Records
---
Amino acid sequence: MDNGIRMRAEGVNFYYGSRPALKDVNLDIQRSQVTSIIGPSGCGKSTFIRLLNRMNDLVPKSRLEGKILLDGEDIHAPETDVVEIRRRVGMVFQKPNPFPKSIYENIKYGLEINGLRDKSLIEQRVVESLKKAALWDEVKGRLYESALRLSGGQQQRLCIARCLAVEPEVILFDEPCASLDPISTSRIEELLMELKRDYTIVIVTHNMQQAARVSGNTAFFLLGEMVEFGRTQDIFTKPRDSRTEAYITGRFG
């Protein structure tokens, strides 16, 4: 794949039954970069991001045309190992979804599913991932307490730690701050800026200020189409398409 590009969508059309949800989407996602996807509700943002790790495989009667490439390989090819794709392309959802287990068990569980059995290595990965998710200092004395006792922002950082533990290459964030207060949102945004040094990040957000703060590139989706894609600064200050400008300036959406 071209230098600097970790994932690519080529001519992507996606259908729920006979209803088209995405139309001819072409998009390059650069490594060590945050790419934001913005647009009004129902425009195809979440549908698109879920194609990047095959989450839409779980939707009955859905159909993909075109290709999603990860390091030049088609992730929807018949021989592809879906479990391995979802390890390499991790996902953090809108609502924090820790398991009803201890903080430690939440992270250990994902490692064991991926075949890790060495106890000392599991322990090392748990500590490392909590540190990377900027949560270690807050939970190091309570690793065996229920994760459900953490605050919403802490739960979301735990979900990020759980994702990081299995050593993904790409992390997808689907509205990760939608249910969080401003202080927790700020912590997550700071974390995104740190993580992009080591990971390729794609974030779906309805918060345009957030997209402007954290991302290097932004794609604007409308009615299943990718209307415009470019450097975030350009999208927000000199959009090329009048529909982008109308959305950015709040005239619709």
---
Amino acid sequence: MFGLPKATEIYKPLPKKAMFNKFKPNAADRKLLDDQISRLTIVAEISPQTVSVMDNEDVSAIFVILIALKTADCDKKNIALLSRLIDQRMLFALQYEDTMRFAAYHAERVLISESKPTDAWKLNLDGLDLGAVWENLIGEIGGIELTRGKNLDEIIAANERREKLMKQIAVLEKKAMNERQPRRKWEYAEGIKRLKFKLEELCNGTNENENT
């Protein structure tokens, strides 16, 4: 499944009722999860017992959880909740009809991949130990290019800052386009200039680390 070695395959249902009884989420969280998720099943275990990769002090196993969705979208709150309830490194395979996305919770952030046909997914187990395998899988899911000299958390944070700046620039550019007062138009232009300078600094900082 998903291009993983056959030795990793398992089948262990995670009944929602049993999870609710054990972890007792609040009513709002329980309703959101119940409205969007039909069933959960552990379908793969990536560990030294199933693949030829060593564990490390942070990651001893990675589990793949197949989530059958009732709706096309899965709220990130559901992924965060499941990740907090179950203390394991987990990849969530979000299946809706014949398409699938992968999601993961890392550094208090939910990362979700693009949607593909279910049989098009091939997960790569790259890395000298499970810690490196986990980071590479997160990079694959989040569309993150891992670079030397920066850890995964730093790259995710830098990407978020870059996306935030780009959104701010787009908002100001739209306002400037619709503004008729010359003074306000100039203020927007100056704001755009400052944000673009910050964006350039951030991108240059990333590129410098990539070239070291």
